[in-house]
Design goal:
The protein is about 30% helix and about 15% strand. With about 220 residues, the chain is an alpha/beta fold. A six-stranded mixed sheet has the order 3-2-1-4-6-5. β1, α1 and β2 form a beta-alpha-beta unit.
């Protein structure tokens, strides 16, 4: 098991962006190991791109991928939009980034493939000795109309006020965390909250991971 490293999510469609990200990591971060999580099975060019990069590998744990696929499909089926949409947005593969919690790195940073690494990550990894998650975003500042969760609907339950909700809103295009935070017990609890307690209805637009990574 490696102590720390970087994940990204990619397939052949974003080949050029992936290469740019890998180049930026080499130039601005250093020789940290990088693991590419397959967005789907279309990864022939991705495999070619990483052949000449000894510090880059392709995520190879089908059991972990299937665990998150099963979780995602069960939750999506409970969302109101599933009754009107013929194609599940889960098929887009965004949820696969969460297999990082079952990956090879004890501590990790995740970059979306269309991102660029601009600085070393020493300070980020250091904070993971104190915190479970590190974010750097402005999701919590978005208006109610574009926020990742339906703030009005959550307030209507009487359980939370907007001031309590907003600090928990984060984008998942860049984050740092640790392996093993979501074991089978944790996922079962999340499913219960999302499905039985209908918290999945707090998510207004079920087409991108930015809206379910805040739950």
């Amino acid at each position: 098991m490696l102590s720390h490293g970087i994940y990204t999510l990619a397939n052949d469609v974003v080949y050029d962006q992936l290469v740019a990200l890998l180049n930026s990591i080499e130039n601005n971060v250093g020789d940290l190991p990088v693991c590419v999580i397959p967005f789907n099975d279309q990864c022939d060019r991705v495999r070619q791109a990483i052949q000449s990069r000894p510090t880059v590998s392709l995520f190879d744990n089908p059991e972990a991928i299937q665990r998150w696929e099963t979780f995602a499909q069960s939750v999506w089926s409970a969302h109101p939009a599933a009754k009107t949409q013929t194609r599940s947005p889960w098929g887009k593969g965004h949820h696969r980034k969460f297999v990082a919690f079952d990956g090879m790195f004890d501590r990790f940073v995740f970059y979306d493939a269309d991102s660029l690494a601009m600085a070393p990550l020493d300070r980020v990894f250091a904070k993971l000795h104190t915190y479970d998650f590190i974010f750097d975003d402005w999701e919590h500042k978005k208006s109610r109309q574009t926020a990742a969760l339906d703030i009005a609907k959550i307030e209507a339950t009487g359980r939370y006020q907007e001031s309590e909700i907003r600090p928990k809103l984060h984008c998942s295009s860049f984050f740092a965390s640790r392996k093993g935070l979501f074991d089978a017990t944790e996922l079962t609890q999340l499913q219960r909250q999302l499905i039985q307690q209908r918290q999945v209805e707090w998510i207004p637009r079920w087409w991108d991971d930015a809206f379910y990574s805040t739950i």
